[in-house]
Amino acid sequence: MSSGNFYDSLSEQLAGLLSGERDWLANTANASALLFMELADTNWAGFYFLYGDELRLGPFQGKAACTRIPVGEGVCGTAVSTGEAQLVEDVHEFPGHIACDAVSASEVVIPLYRGERCLGVLDVDSPTVARFTAEDLAGLQAFAEVLLEHSDAPDVQWR
């Protein structure tokens, strides 16, 4: 199966899993579990939510993680400050990388927007350098869109 078909199937699984449920917290928890279970060669999959000028840890699967990340710092904070997804082949060469888990070697981060409002990020890490490709990035962006379509925006303090 090509990764395009893989991500199409993954997005369909997510849509089915979230069918009839609009709760942001429940849906991000199930989305992180699905990613961690289905996406090969990953050691962390989850979410950080934007509160003011920092990201705070949300639902995830994997080892314990950083609880707070300032906007503009690390891969996740850079995704929020630039408004652009980040595909990092080697996190140890990323300026200002925050090593929540020393085993992580590559990372992809998708900023999550509802209109103009950033809700946070989807973050996936791998212990393998250059694990993620442009196809993974596109597939994870489509996965995030399914999550956003099936979820109500959370009631949190926005910046």
Automatic annotation (TrEMBL):
UniProt cross-references to InterPro entries, sorted A to Z: FRMsr_CS, GAF, GAF-like_dom_sf, Phosphatase_reg/MetRdx
Protein name, entry field: GAF domain-containing protein
Family assignment from sequence similarity: Belongs to the free Met sulfoxide reductase family.
Ranges where the GAF domain occurs: 5-158
Gene3D superfamilies: 3.30.450.40
Signal peptide: none
